[in-house]
What we know:
The complex is a heterodimer of chains A (103) and B (180).
Chain A: H1 7-27, H2 31-55, H3 60-90
Helix pairs in contact in A: 1-2, 2-3
Chain B: H1 2-5, H2 8-31, H3 35-55, H4 59-83, H5 87-90, H6 98-120, H7 142-150, H8 154-175
Helix pairs in contact in B: 2-3, 3-4
Amino acid sequence: MIPDIPYNFYLLLSGVLFTIGAIGVVTRRSAIIVFMCIELMLNGVNLAFIASGTFLGSLDGVIFVFFIMTVAAAEAAIGLAIFVLIFRLKGTVHLDEINLLKG
Amino acid sequence: MTLMMLGPAFKWFIFIGAAALSVFASIMMVTRRSPIHSALWLIVAFFSLAVIYLTLGAQFIAVAQVIVYAGAIMMLIIFVIMLIHLEMEMKESGKFSAAKTIGAFVAILFFIEVAAAVISYRLGAERVVPPQGLPTLQGSDVKAIGSLLYGQYLFPFEIASILLLVGIVGAVVLAKRVKG
Lengths: 103, 180
């Protein structure tokens, strides 16, 4: 008899995805790639929510992920509009070049 | 529910395949030079995560993942990558700087913390059985999700719709070309 997939495996996978996203955020310097890494981190968190909700027999995880997806969609629309603006202003979206607030 | 009824061996097979594919695609996404390649690998990662949601029995979220993330958000990102020509970004320096090394080190420390917490925490493989009288709640139960969204979570749901509206208006206002 093969056991069911343990809860911990899902959490570990979620941690791995979150860490890969975090490493991408700190090592890549292109704003769009950093943005994609943040989306990956959000997905890692979503997986933890779904796994917890399933294993605790509750639907609240699904509801949370629904709202996270809503916020991620709004964030994508606004963030990409800001990238377009920055590109018009500076001609690049390289993060080291964006230092207007540095003073 | 169909996947839940299949044998556990098949579920393990699907889970390991999808998990390995998602980790591989994420690593490729982080390491590719070209932003468009990164975006395509991220789509692969989103699809394999949708399969993992299916192994958890959360059909609604799996479909929403494909529609919202792999569909809408990635389409936006790819449009912006094509809009902003990123040739300058392509030759991003591959050399290691101190900040990058320290950042990656801290991120790996964070992963070790998460792994330690997960390993020391034992919930067990068996799902929690809800008390008698309550219906069994599964992520696939779209009817239950709908009644929760329009019942207990009605106010956050309306706030979310206002948030999306503000997002649309804000994106249009921001991206509008200034006259003159």
